[in-house]
Backbone:
């Protein structure tokens, strides 16, 4: 029986290079990237992926040129106001994670409305990481743990991996089984630093706007050919199944 990852996380890289190759402005690359998101969301639903996480905007992306950041914010707002209706129609539940205080009031309000609209949907969970960073996630979890200890809700001795994970932005979801990065870069760029402990990695030269259902299936097929040991040996795994 084919093993399908429950949770797939993707760094959608290569929009700028895609546009440059075609002598187009970077905005055109980001717009083409939105089309790729539509394709992959549809493909993930078809493949019965339970959770799909997309790294849309990192905490470091604010350092990009002001015009590009402005264009990205406009694309995010447009998606929240229009694409979410399609997600809702297809029974997809949307969850935005990241430091939302960094966004404009209009975007923050749109996030609240979008999540509320899809909150009761029972289909695939779509996580959009925006103004998110793995270090930020760990740091905010540490602060919450410290506060819990200070207020008497926890003792320092009670804090273990499970307790700590409950304070991360992804507390509602299983850790990613498969991580995909497009465009040939081989790094995680401050994505799910804690959550990727035992995630399988898949890197492809394909630029994100060209990433389609066929490329997505290649990544899933690669995952099915992996043996996930989670730190155990083959014999121990076999014994645990006996």
Residues:
């Amino acid at each position: 029986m084919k093993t399908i990852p429950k949770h797939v996380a993707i760094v959608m890289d290569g929009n700028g290079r895609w546009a440059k190759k075609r002598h187009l402005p970077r905005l055109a690359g980001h717009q083409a990237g939105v089309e790729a998101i539509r394709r992959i969301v549809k493909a993930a639903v078809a493949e019965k992926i339970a959770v799909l996480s997309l790294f849309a905007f990192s905490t470091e992306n604010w350092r990009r040129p002001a015009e590009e950041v402005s264009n990205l914010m406009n694309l995010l707002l447009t998606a929240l106001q229009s694409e979410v209706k399609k997600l809702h129609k297809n029974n997809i539940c949307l969850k935005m994670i990241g430091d939302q205080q960094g966004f404009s009031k209009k975007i923050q309000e749109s996030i609240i409305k979008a999540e509320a609209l899809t909150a009761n949907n029972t289909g695939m969970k779509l996580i959009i990481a925006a103004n998110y960073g793995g270090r930020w996630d760990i740091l905010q979890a540490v602060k919450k743990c410290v506060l819990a200890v200070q207020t008497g809700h926890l003792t320092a001795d009670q804090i273990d991996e499970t307790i700590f994970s409950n304070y991360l932005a992804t507390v509602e979801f299983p850790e990613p089984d498969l991580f995909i990065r497009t465009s040939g870069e081989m790094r995680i760029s401050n994505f799910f630093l804690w959550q990727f402990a035992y995630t399988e990695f898949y890197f492809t030269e394909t630029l994100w706007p060209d990433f389609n259902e066929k490329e997505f299936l290649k990544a899933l097929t690669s995952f099915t050919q992996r043996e996930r040991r989670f730190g155990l040996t083959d014999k121990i795994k076999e014994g645990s199944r006996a």
About this structure: The helical segments are 15-21, 26-46, 66-89, 105-118, 134-150, 161-165, 213-224, 234-241. Strands lie at 7-11, 51-58, 93-97, 125-132, 178-181, 200-203.
